[in-house]
């Protein structure tokens, strides 16, 4: 679907197209694997912990993780990385359910303009959570105008994560590989009581999608 300048889409219309296009892409995604590098650094850039993992996904909901290297704080790796991967596996398999999808049931959407991110021309949509829930967020989403795919998300959780975490601000970047849009880089700045600022990143590389090995994007979104 295309929109003329005189009939610029509303936030809800953009999200409706996003949902439809995601369903079409998901129907063609049988399996993929990716190498992820999880890392936590202090505000001064010093590394606290790092873990390199190969994640394998098979439709409709199986995710497995294989660690290939790890270094730094064992506590950080157990409390942050391991718990994150365990939660992701349980959510994918349906054993744990968090309704955090970009849908009108969870959010209010307001189109606030258009912007280029690297090679991608995007609608920019302001997103406001309809309830205080740590699995929802308030922020902005950049959605590519032709594929109706998420290119970038900037925001923070709609509810405080814990007593110890004052705030968590994140940026999620996506890239197009073939017909699919997949994660490129996640960065979260966490402000922890008594400890200070921590920067948590996940880099996604060396994709294999539906049997095609070592895929990479020729162009990626702007990291600004």
Describe the structure in brief.
With 224 residues, this protein is of the alpha+beta class. It has a single domain (8-209), classed as Clam (outer membrane lipoprotein receptor (LolB), chain A), CATH 2.50.20. Helix content is 17%, strand content 52%.
Characterize the structure shown.
The protein has two helices and eleven strands. The protein is 17% helix and 52% strand. The mean pLDDT is 89. The chain has 224 residues and is α+β, with helices and mostly antiparallel strands. Strands 1, 2, 3, 4, 5, 6, 7, 8, 9, 10 and 11 form an eleven-stranded antiparallel beta sheet that branches. It has a single domain, classed as outer membrane lipoprotein receptor (LolB), chain A (Clam). The protein is globular.
